[in-house]
Amino acid sequence: MRTLLLIVVFSISTISYARITIIPDPNFEQALIDLGIDSDGIRNGQVLTNDIETLISLDVRYKNISNLTGIEDFADLESLNVRGNNLTSLNTSTNTKLKNLFCLVNPLYTINISSNILLESLDIQVLHKLDNIDLSNNINLETLMMGDCWIDTIDISHNVNLKTLIADGAFISEIDLSQNLLLEYLDLTGVDISSLDVSNNILLKELYFGTFDGYIGEPITTIDPSNNVNLELVYGTNLFFLETVDARNGNNEILTVTLPSEFEGNPCQLTELYCVQVDDEVAATNNNPPYNNWRIDANFNYSEDCMLRILTKGDSGFSINPNPVKNELFLNSKNISGNLNLRIFNIEGKLLSNQSLSKPIFIDRKGNFTRCFQLVKWHVFSKN
């Protein structure tokens, strides 16, 4: 009886040890051989499952692999790098322990990561065949790199732990960051979006956006990081439509704003920018720290309030439209007894206009009027 039991145990152990995983792609198997993972060292379309099932990390970048069949038996895999291969589909649904996935520079049409709830880092850069990706189950995702990815829409509302988003050159036209409260690093350089709202991203430290050299796009007209008290750097390139920047976040001491502009390698000006709102207007105007480290390629004014300022004398019923002023200014006054004399000054104190306001007037920005009417004063003279 004892002899029979030993034979049965030995037979079961042998069967367990002999389990194999099919690897149909010869380049994939060769990569496993080169890495010393495939223990038989023979390219025979298979590998012992025992050789791969406890492997934690696998790096097979640039191995000309077209078929990743067999990856499903890498049960303990936490990190997978398949960069620069010929994969058209990728399914890691059985690799439930996966934390890091690098599948950039592949002709991928489909990616299935719906079961990878532990995933922390995902790199899908330079994927020109991929139409969409579902990230709704990847709630632990902290880093998403999708630069030059041709996906035109992306939903990251479920990725509440996201800290880093790199999407430079991506084909998306809009992005909702309202649920990404832990976001610290954001790069949208070369992304053709018309607006950017980072008001909920209080922990944001670095913000990059703008257009690439020689490309006129991204019609963003205003930047408002006033809620981002932890912000250390705003870097926006070639924002040719930019008109105002609200950088008054109460912590300009740690903030650097860089807004360079060039076309085909030659420096140029952001001609639309007229006002930058800051914590300390005097320090900024005098190029004192921290503003001496700021670079803004434009002829603009610093202000603590880029909205049109009005100095009132009593209840004059004075109205201004629009506010803030861009190209035109409409002024009207009610309940005035006497003659109203209107004077408009620029930020340097230069008198731009001096006229009576006995009736509503319309002022068009021209001549020596700048884009930002900084100060309005008026005096009421009695009839006597």
UniProtKB/TrEMBL annotation:
Protein name stated in the entry: Leucine Rich Repeat (LRR)-containing protein
**Organism this protein belongs to:** Aequorivita sublithincola (strain DSM 14238 / LMG 21431 / ACAM 643 / 9-3)
